[in-house]
Amino acid sequence: MQGIDIRMVASDGEGADLARLLWRVLWEPLGLPEGMVRSFGLVTPRTDLIAVRCDAVVGGLVANWLSDAEVEIRHLAVLPEYQRQSVGRRLACALIRLADHERAASIETYARNTSADFFARLGFLPTGEHLEDAHFGKYGIHFERMRLELAGSI
Question: Does 53 or 152 have the greater pLDDT score?
Fold first, then answer.
């Protein structure tokens, strides 16, 4: 989509905008509290990417670097009015290029059943591992571990 810039979070303000976006898209609809992202035990180093249009954050991605060789996408969200316009794909591809440039071997994620097809279109494959959470399960949300091997994948 034209007019959307994908970049790394560069300030505390952008980090706060990313946290609000994640809550609004991923957790508010499930009745979870704002600030939920702090309960997920994110590790550093991490890469936080945002999609910005007209100075507003319209999408974001949070990834943990578990080691020099392995990256994990923890959260990926796009405002509903910008979904299905390649914003999520552009965020994921920016991370893939960065991880490949840094010589990481793979990227993994626990994809919601609602986003597994999205990750599959990017080349992620299911590992056969599933994660169930009672709170998410009552909304019909289940998680499947997916993995992308990096070797010039994009």
Answer: 53
